[in-house]
Design goal:
By secondary structure, the chain is an alpha+beta fold. It contains 6 helices and 10 strands, in the order H-E-E-E-H-E-E-E-E-E-H-E-E-H-H-H. Helix 3 packs across helix 6 and helix 4 packs antiparallel against helix 6. The protein starts with a helix and ends in an 18-residue tail after the last helix.
Length: about 260
């Protein structure tokens, strides 16, 4: 299903709740959505099911998810189609479900001697049995794109389980409710390219995104979900990333990796 058709279905389809994702910290419902004989699965997160966060007092987590999608759609295209609409339990975020295969995971924790070719070690630790282990992610170009995208949206919670390898080979990121703060809060498992030069296509994408933030439709759409300071901070992070020309490294001022990492 192409993006335009997916957004039309998400906006106008009938939502039928089929279950709840119990590992989520906020109300996250697995649903069927139907319109004119077309069915799909989606995730629905009603605003009324959000737990207040002291450090994200403005707006809603659902609105931040939608704003993150809008930035993705104008840049790296790493977030599934997402919008805000009424649902069975009130207004909430609705996002197209992405089917994956467990054996195609792109982030993992393995033994120190089990790092496979094509995987990048990120962090050395110990597993629950006390044995040495390594957090790794695939050396995949779309993961590299997502790493840059997370800097732009200031993702405070890029866990391994939030990186999806779709059945068709596409790569998506999900769970963006705590993004887009004005203060630096980047926490991610995708540090594998730290200090390496940004590829040309990433630089070009960032320049295109920066242009779209200067009073265009994206700028206006983001103000529906974020404060003026938060929208301004998006542009400032893009400027900083372009000026540096490299993937950032952890600053030491904030925990670099979310924990648990999955």
């Amino acid at each position: 299903m192409d993006t335009s058709a997916a957004l039309h279905l998400l906006e106008h389809g009938r939502i039928e709740v089929e279950g709840r994702l119990v590992d989520a910290s906020n109300a996250t419902l697995f649903c069927k959505i139907s319109l004119d004989g077309v069915d799909a699965q989606c995730v629905y997160k009603p605003v009324r099911g959000e737990r207040p966060l002291w450090d994200f007092p403005d707006g809603t987590l659902a609105g931040r998810e939608v704003a993150t999608y809008l930035i993705s759609a104008a840049s790296f295209d790493v977030v599934p189609p997402t919008l805000l609409r009424p649902g069975p339990f009130g207004t909430g975020m609705v996002q197209l479900w992405v089917d994956t295969r467990e054996e195609d995971e792109l982030v993992d924790i393995v033994g120190v001697d089990d790092v496979k070719p094509g995987w990048i070690p990120v962090f050395h630790a110990h597993d629950r049995f006390g044995d040495p282990a390594v957090l790794v992610h695939a050396d995949h170009p779309r993961i590299a794109d997502m790493s840059a995208f997370d800097v732009v949206v200031n993702n405070a919670d890029r866990k391994g389980g939030h990186v999806l390898h779709a059945l068709d080979g596409s790569v998506y990121g999900v769970d963006h409710g705590i993004c887009l703060h004005t203060e630096p809060k980047l926490r991610t498992v995708l540090w594998g390219w730290a200090t390496q030069p940004l590829p040309d296509h990433v630089l070009e994408t960032l320049r295109r995104l920066r242009s779209s933030l200067d009073g265009g439709p994206l700028d206006e759409a983001l103000h529906d979900h974020l404060t003026r300071a938060e929208v301004r901070a998006v542009g400032e992070r893009v400027d900083k990333l372009l000026a540096a020309g490299v993937y950032p490294e952890p600053s030491g001022d904030w925990p670099a990796i979310p924990w648990p990492a999955f």
